[in-house]
Specification:
The chain is of the alpha/beta class. The protein has 2 domains: 10-263, TIM Barrel, CATH 3.20.20; 278-348, Glutaredoxin. It contains 13 helices and 13 strands. It has helices at residues 31-34, 43-55, 77-92, 110-118, 133-138, 145-157, 175-188, 205-211, 220-236, 250-255, 265-285, 302-306, 311-320, and strands at 10-16, 62-68, 98-103, 121-129, 161-166, 192-195, 200-201, 240-244, 256-258, 292-298, 324-330, 338-343, 346-348. Strands 1-2-3-4-5-6-8 form a 7-stranded parallel sheet. Strands 11-10-12-13 form a 4-stranded mixed sheet. The radius of gyration is 22 Å and the shape is globular. Bound molecules: iron/sulfur cluster.
Length: 351
């Protein structure tokens, strides 16, 4: 079974492994603050978590064990292998089908990759954050874009699937730099990506920078706009977007000081991607200055085509002065939109 088989439900078993002794000082990271509140994870805890999720699985699902939350390959070696040994038992028994880990680009080398291979890890996600060396330096990441290029080469060379995480809006970032990062990510051709706009969390150096005025986070509108420009670039390159924005939790909400945090961030971005596509079609096909338009979208995309609180409809009416906009789901391939002219009540086949 693979994670892409049609009709197979994908179950992700998340195991949060905080990197308590991390020697790095990334300005956005709150691990130092939370290190006193989260107990270290034992191999026994890993087993308990896996068993809990498996109990709720049908047995027909594609089950993936995902170690996230820190720099997995930077934790003490015996602890890392203890986690992997536990996970591999489930692979060997056929109860799980894949293991994924996330780590820093400079914590990847041949030796580490050989260990990960031995334990059946399939996907390695890299916390890249930016491909701009100034942004990386100001954010005190402690690695450069060259480290990313080297790590991706090693990961792919060892036959792993590679994922990349980026964080638009870090200190020193601009729209141009973020688009440069997206372009370089496309060149690196990972199979998947997560986009997390930078959020100011309690207890981080970025909070101090925000409070003393040396850092201004993106607004929600900016973050949505930047991400909506990146998403089509990645999709056109065949890079699957597996996450847009941080997962909502009460703990996270309590930790947010400032920045573009929204519980439905991904939906806002998807709606914006569709709005940009509709605008592109209107401009291309000369559908401006009409009484109205009719939009056909693919099945399941009606609400994101209309937008949160009808935001897309309002934006199109404000921009083009349409009196009437009809939206309907049709038998279109996923991601495809059609726009037709409306004169009075009738659709006119101008597109
Ligand atoms: S984000 Fe930076 S500081 Fe935080 S755990 Fe990862 S490497 Fe360490």
């Amino acid at each position: 079974m693979t994670s892409h088989d049609a009709g197979v439900r994908h179950i992700n078993i998340p195991i949060f492994v905080p990197h308590m002794g991390c020697p790095n000082t990334c300005v956005f990271c709150d691990q130092r603050r939370i290190s006193g509140t989260i107990a270290p994870v034992s191999a026994e805890d890993v087993k308990e978590t896996i068993d809990k999720y498996l109990a709720a699985s049908s047995g027909e699902d594609y089950v993936e064990i995902a170690f996230f939350g820190g720099s997995f390959t930077g934790i003490p070696r015996n602890q890392m292998t203890a986690y992997l040994e536990t996970a591999k038992e489930y692979l060997d028994m056929g109860f799980a089908h894949g293991i994924r880990i996330s780590t820093r680009p400079d914590y990847i080398d041949h030796e580490i990759l050989d260990i990960l291979k031995k334990y059946g890890v399939r996907i390695i996600e890299l916390g890249v954050q930016s491909m701009d060396d100034d942004v990386l330096a100001i954010s005190k990441r402690g690695h450069t874009s060259k480290d990313v290029i080297k790590a991706v080469g090693l990961i792919k060379g060892h036959g792993f699937e590679c994922g990349i995480q980026i964080m638009p809006g870090l200190p020193g970032d601009t729209l141009k730099k973020s688009m440069g990062t997206a372009k370089k990510v496309v060149e690196l051709a990972p199979s998947q990506a997560r986009i997390y706009p930078a959020i100011v969390l309690k207890g981080t150096e970025m909070e101090e920078m925000y409070r003393n005025g040396s850092y201004t986070p993106l607004t929600l509108e900016e973050a949505v706009e930047w991400c909506a420009m990146m998403v089509p670039m990645f999709r056109e390159a065949g890079i699957r977007i597996i996450r847009l924005g941080l997962h909502y939790s009460e703990f996270l909400e309590d930790s947010v000081v400032a920045g573009p945090f929204h519980p439905a961030f991904g939906e806002l971005v998807e709606a914006r991607v569709i709005l940009d596509r509709i605008i592109g079609i209107i401009e291309e096909k000369g559908l401006k200055g009409l009484p109205g338009i009719e939009i056909h979208t693919w099945k399941g995309a009606l609400s994101k085509t209309i937008g949160h609180n009808r935001a897309n409809i309002k934006a199109l009416k404000a921009r083009y002065g349409y009196g009437r906009i009809r939206v309907g789901e049709c038998d279109l391939p996923s991601g495809q939109i059609r726009v037709f002219a409306l004169y009075g009540g009738d659709k006119h086949e101008r597109n």
